[in-house]
Amino acid sequence: MTRLAKAQNIDELAAMARRRLPRGLFEYLDRGAEDEVTMRGNADSIKRVYLRQRVAIDVSGRDAATEVLGIRQSLPIGIAATGLASLIHHEGESKLASAAAAAGVPFTIGTSNFTSQAKLQEICGDLLWRLIYPNKRREIVEHHIAKAREAGIRTIVITMDSAVTGNREYLRHSGFQPGATNARTFAQVLAAPHWLFGTFLPYMLAGGFPEFADMPEGERKFWGGTFSWAALADDFTWDDVRAIRKRWKGNLVLKGLSTAEDARAAAACGVDGIIVSNHGGRMLDGCIPSFMALPEIVDAVAPGVTVMVDGGFKRGADVLKAIALGAASVWVGRATLYGLAAGGEAGAARALAIFRAEIDRAMALLGCGAIADIGRGHVTA
Ligand SMILES: Cc1cc2nc3c(=O)[nH]c(=O)nc-3n(C[C@H](O)[C@H](O)[C@H](O)COP(=O)(O)O)c2cc1C
Hints:
Blueprint: H1 10-20, H2 23-30, H3 37-47, E1 66-68, E2 71-73, E3 77-79, H4 85-88, H5 92-103, E4 107-109, H6 117-124, E5 128-132, H7 138-151, E6 155-159, H8 169-174, H9 183-190, H10 193-205, H11 238-247, E7 251-257, H12 260-268, E8 273-276, H13 290-301, E9 306-310, H14 316-324, E10 330-332, H15 334-366
Parallel strand pairs: 3-10, 4-5, 5-6, 6-7, 7-8, 8-9, 9-10
Antiparallel strand pairs: 1-2
The chain binds flavin mononucleotide.
Flavin mononucleotide (FMN) is lined by residues 28-29, 42, 80-83, 110, 131, 159, 255, 277, 279-280, 282, 310-313, 332-335, 337.
């Protein structure tokens, strides 16, 4: 049995990831903001709802495939945008993209990408979704929209929950954030030989960390540059969303909503989809867990607007709970990153295989042959 095949669930992949990454980098991946109330709430709230199992149903021809925003996917999950995935594993963005493409699920590439979206699009086709952060300099947002159009991207996602960056104190201690590197950072890197030799050194031997592939000319440097890629916008409003809607004819999705009021405002702007999300509990700590916010948003805007959710999903049965509450699909952030850290593309593929097996088993046991068969009657209130 290969090392990765020994991981029977996402938590076991997380344990492997922890052993391979420098401590501070694992914390960047794994932890949330401040007291992590929202991060824990994301996972805990899913566990508080139970599945209502139905029996004596022929589920022998079951199929977990579904269609989201007109694009078919083989499972009701996708790989969420996670910035700097190429620091978790050498060329991690391409590896996540390849794992997603092989599994037939969507992959969202973050804005601070080392690998160009055009290259990722060759791997994923229509299953590549493009995340765009509101930037203080609106011409950078414009630039990203134009680039997405040029690359033939069908779906763009705007992150809405990050007017400023969440407070993650442990990063200032460990130094695993731009400008904060300290003696601890180096000690932790030296204590993680897999990452040092497998990720860090290959970049250094090739001349340093790659540039941000899709940023405008002159704004692409990671260290020592203008940091425009990280200049979040604290003045981004529904007017900006309306303006983007006018210019972008493809699928437009807003990510990071957690109230019915904002969902209605988004619907009024003419968006196609909403991802109910709090950034995996990495931004506003104390914010309502996504799974708890899901029903009110579904009731407010579905089915006219496609509602999806992320935050705390590590089991196939939990994905089915979200589908039952009206989500069209679930996005996973950390789960596939644990796989990536544990074993590159094969590790990310292992995470998706675990979800596939768990979703298939849970559908059979729940008495559902198709994703469309799953409804509110399948969960406790
Ligand atoms: C390491 C890491 C980096 C992330 N970077 C971004 C980002 O750049 N933009 C964004 O909108 N969300 C980002 N997210 C949030 C994810 O897109 C997603 O909302 C979240 O991970 C879902 O929760 P889960 O990790 O519990 O599955 C990041 C998450 C992680 C774990």
